[in-house]
Structures are given as C-alpha cells and as structure tokens.
Design brief:
This protein has 555 residues and is of the alpha/beta class. The chain folds into 2 domains: 451 residues, Alkaline Phosphatase, subunit A (3-Layer(aba) Sandwich), CATH 3.40.720.10; 74 residues, 2-Layer Sandwich (Arylsulfatase, C-terminal domain). The chain contains 13 helices and 20 strands. Strands 1, 2, 3, 4, 5, 6, 7, 10, 11, 12, 13 and 14 form a 12-stranded mixed β-sheet that branches. A 4-stranded antiparallel β-sheet has the order 17-18-19-20. Helix 8 packs antiparallel against helix 9. The N terminus is likely disordered.
Length: 555
C-alpha cells in the first residue's frame, strides 16, 4: 500500500464574537510588549487590556473520548480507512461511542481547536511541559513519580511577577513527586511555582471522588509548606451540596475568582483548574472507577448508568463496563465545567479560556479498565503510557473575545506550547531560554507560541520538515518500558528501549494518522537533503530521538 507524501489540512470557518471587557492597567514594560504582539487580542493603543485567563486540564481524557469537539473527524477517518481509501478490514471500529460533552463542544465552537496536539504519555510529564515549556526529558519528569525541580522556570511566576496577575490553582497538582517518609513531596509545590493560592491534591490519583486529601497553600503557609484537612462540602447551581471532588474544585475556583474581582477589579487573574476526572482511583474495590453524582450527568449518561446497575455517587459500578464509566465520568466533568464556564462568562466575558487533556485514554488490560471506545482501531498495547497517538493525542481549545470561533487547526502542536502561548496572551514576551533543573545554566524552550494561529495571522508555527515534537515515557506500569516518539509535520517514529530498525516503528501520519500501516525502515540514511523521500524523515527523526530525548540523558 502506497503511503507517499503526507496530506495535512486545516478546516477554518471563522465567526468573530465580541464582548464587553474591562481595561486593566499593566506595568509599563508589559504594556509596550502587548502593543507589539497582541494585535486583535489586546488593544494596540490607549489603555491595554490585560485579560483574565482560565486554564482547565482534564485527566486521562484523550481525543477519542471528546471527538464531538472536532466535527467531521470521525467521518473523515472512516472514509480514509474504508473501502474507498486504505481498505482497513476493521475500519468500522473507528466510529465508536465518545462521551457526551456539550459544554466542551460549545467551547470548541467558540474558539480554535488544535486537533493534532501531543501531550506526554503520563500526567506529571505533561504538567511539567505546560509549566516549563520543555519536553519531558529536559524537564526530567518522564513518569508519574518524578518531581519537578524547583530550579525550573514556571510561566506562572512570570505572570505574577512581570504581569501583575493574581494566581490560583484548584485541583490536581502532581508535580511535587510522590510522598515518602524522608522527604514528603520533594519537588516543586504550587506556591514555589508562583501560585498565591492552592486548594486541591498534590499527588497522582485520589482514594475516591468522595474521600480524598484536601491540601491548602495560601498567605499563611510558606512556599514549601501546606496544611491538610477534610474535603469541604460545596454546591453549584443545579448541583446539591456535596464533597464530590469536581464540584469542590470548581466551587473553590469560583469563590477565589469572585474574591479577586471584589478586591481589585482592575487586577487580572490566572486560574489553573485541574480535574482528577476521568482518572481511576486508588481504591480498587468494588471498582477503581466511579458512578458520578446523578445531578452531574445528562440524560444520556444517566440512562447508561441505570441500565448497567451503577449506584450514583459511589464506586459501586454494577455491571458497567470501563468504556461506559469513562463516558459517564467525562460527562460529569463536562457538566461541572459548564457551571464554571457559565459563571466565568458572567463575571468577565473577556476571559480567555484554554482547555487541554493531560494524556491519552488508558488501556490497562484488566477487566473494566480498558477505556478506548472510539476513534482508534488498534487499542491493545496502546493508550496512556505509550507514545502512540492514542497515548498522547489530546484535545486543546483556546477561546475568548477576539479569537475567531469554529476553527480547527491541524498544525502539529504540543502541551509545551502553552508556556509561551499563555505568556503571549498575557502581553508578556515569552523567553527563549529558561533555567535548567540543577540551577547551573539555561535550556532552550521547546514550546512555540500559538498566538499567530490563534489570532489568524499564520497557519503554522513550526517548519513541517525541520521542526519536531517529542513525547517520552518511562512506563512504570509495564516494567519501566522506555519509549520515545518524535514527529514532524508528516512522519512519526516510535522507538522502544533503543533506536534501531528492530525497535522503532515508522508511520506517515499525514496518510495514516491512526498508525495502522508501518513504513519499512530504510537500509541506510541517504546523503543529501532530499526531503521528498520517507528515508530522509526516518533518519532525521531517529537522530532527534538519539540526541534530544531522555535516551541521550542516560535514563
């Protein structure tokens, strides 16, 4: 089967929306930068508008669970792999059952969706990439136990110190490492990263969605200290008082936002809201998954949970499959997120909203713990923890006034891009160099600002041939398997344990975005620069993995 030159495309249907916005006075240096770089998003003359920014991160929700955010994606793939295309015998499995996500779908219609975004294969590495702008190996966070060094540069510190932002974090942190008796949470804590307030949990998974550690950092705690307590009971419009984790996170965030607006309506704020949904819990019995509170589910999810005997508001999942539980938990996330977005729009319709998933959907290979039920054909041995598309391809949306809605970009992008993008959206100049992990020097920032695509001034921010993305995994769930993938605008190389023909898989993502048809590796690397040949791309990406990934750093 000929998998020749790649075909990539961007679907753009723009609708400009307007909203009344506050004017927020900036420090002089930031104001000068804003006038140069934020045409269309921040006023270029007169008082400079400093936008409030809301970043939302979901947990274990890959693009396959939320394909409603990208209309036509599944149809296009069915056609591509069907009888008139690549003739895959199982092409019908592409059209599965995603979660019901009306609020995320609306957010996608209001902004620009990046449909080819990579995260890292695990939670902590992705969060490290977002915070530092570095690929996982350079941040030295490549599995879910690694702590992020306090020497690294956080974009939140710059928002606070250079941009004059109030900063708050609500929900899952998972960058301080895992607790131990000698040094509980040795890595970077939220206040060390630049957050003034933190309410949530610092570690990976929680015991259950109704029984979890509730940790706080605020003006009364040192940057490396926190206090813990019982989860509070909170409510949201249409949702009864509960200690259900997603409701508490959103209620905490809204209380903080309202307090900031009341204290100083001219001072901008940045809120990072990180859900644990739809992650499995550490309590395994009777289930590691949950049947969410009934008043956080829509009719479709309520009916599915009732049909399989799940007990609402518990981890008593009855006969519900893992796929059904993933749908219900993601629908619950969407409902609670909708409450957050509705109130934020009411408080300040000028707020910029960013949503991203932290890694692909899991396939744990255990009863009721396989969750992919849409989009992908090959599922076993892939998903979360792997460098295949189902392990790293996540939804990313940026929406707000001045951003043309209804657009889908196929530009190859990465979670690390949020570091410079958020700084640019705030009117600050993103750095090209940041501190390294041991405090002895600097490193080149891997992320690229997506602002030119967001504001419509450019269709891409990377050279599709020469530039690359990396995603890196040390998979503790599979005996510490080391796997790295590199891609450019057309091709992808996935290497396990080492970089050679027997350990790497080569794909043309432009023709085969689901990684179903391997391209044979070349016998040798051709001299010269004939980029029309797949062999050139194989050799280029192999060199990237050898020299730029954690393989080159001895891990």
């Amino acid at each position: 089967m000929d998998l020749g030159a790649a075909r990539m495309f961007t679907r753009c249907v723009g609708i400009h929306g307007g909203a009344r916005m506050r004017t927020r006075k900036l420090p002089a240096s930031a104001a000068m930068v804003a006038g140069l770089v934020l045409a269309g998003l921040v006023q270029a003359a007169g008082p400079v508008t400093r936008r409030n920014i809301l970043l939302v991160i979901s947990d274990d929700v890959g693009l396959d669970v939320t394909t409603g955010m990208v209309p036509g994606l599944v149809d296009d793939l069915v056609e591509r792999y069907g009888p008139q295309g690549l003739q895959h015998p199982r092409y019908g499995e592409i059209r599965g059952r995603p979660a019901s996500t009306p609020n995320l779908d609306r957010l996608a219609r209001e902004g620009i969706t990046f449909a080819s975004t990579w995260a890292q294969p695990f939670c902590s590495p992705t969060r490290a990439s977002i915070l530092t702008g570095l690929f996982a190996g350079k941040a030295n966070v490549i599995n879910y136990t690694d702590p992020l060094s306090q020497h690294h540069t956080s974009f939140v510190q710059r928002l606070r110190d250079e941009g004059g932002y109030s900063t708050g974090l609500f929900g899952k942190w998972h960058l301080a490492g895992m607790p131990n008796e000698q040094d509980p949470y040795p890595g970077m804590k939220p206040k060390e990263a630049g957050f003034e307030v933190f309410r949530g949990n610092m570690h990976a998974a929680i015991k259950s969605y109704w029984d979890y550690d509730y940790m706080v950092q605020d003006e009364s705690t040192a940057p490396d200290q926190w206090r813990s307590g019982e989860p509070p009971v909170k409510s949201l419009p249409g949702i009864a008082p509960t200690n259900y984790g997603p409701v508490v996170k959103v209620a905490d965030a809204l209380e903080w936002i309202r307090a900031r607006e009341a204290a100083d309506p001219e001072k901008p704020w940045f809120a990072w809201v990180a859900f644990n949904l739809s992650h499995a819990t550490t309590v395994q019995q009777p289930s590691a998954m949950a049947v969410p509170n009934a008043d956080t589910l829509d009719g479709r999810s309520l009916a599915e949970m009732k049909a399989c005997g799940g007990k609402f508001g518990t981890n008593q999942t009855g006969r519900c499959s893992g796929e059904a539980l993933m749908r219900a938990m993601t629908n619950s996330l969407d409902t609670v997120l909708g409450k957050l977005l509705e109130e934020v729009r009411r408080i300040d319709p000028g707020t910029i909203v960013i949503y991203i998933g932290d890694n692909g959907t899991p396939m744990y290979g255990r009863p009721n713990l396989d969750f992919i039920d849409n989009l992908y054909i090959t599922r076993r041995g892939r998903g979360k923890g792997t460098a295949f598309e189902s392990g790293v391809r996540v939804p990313l949306v940026i929406a707000g006034p001045g951003i043309a809605g209804g657009r889908v970009s196929a530009e190859f992008t990465h979670a690390a891009d949020l570091f410079p993008t958020i700084l640019a959206l705030a009117g600050l100049t993103p750095p090209t160099e940041v501190g390294n992990g041991d405090g002895t020097g600097t490193m080149r920032v891997d992320g690229r600002s997506l602002l030119p695509i967001v504001d419509g001034s450019a269709g891409r921010v990377r050279d599709p041939v020469q530039d690359f993305l990396l995603t890196e995994s040390l998979n503790l769930m599979t005996n510490s398997t080391r796997q790295v993938a590199a891609r450019n605008g057309f091709f992808k190389l996935v290497c396990t344990e080492k970089v050679d023909a027997g350990s790497c898989e080569f794909y043309n993502l432009g023709m085969d975005p689901l990684e179903e048809f391997q391209i044979p590796p070349p016998r040798d690397c051709p001299a010269g620069s004939d980029t029309s040949q797949p062999a050139w791309h194989y050799c280029r990406l192999a060199e990237v993995i050898r020299t730029e990934s954690f393989f080159a750093r001895g891990r």
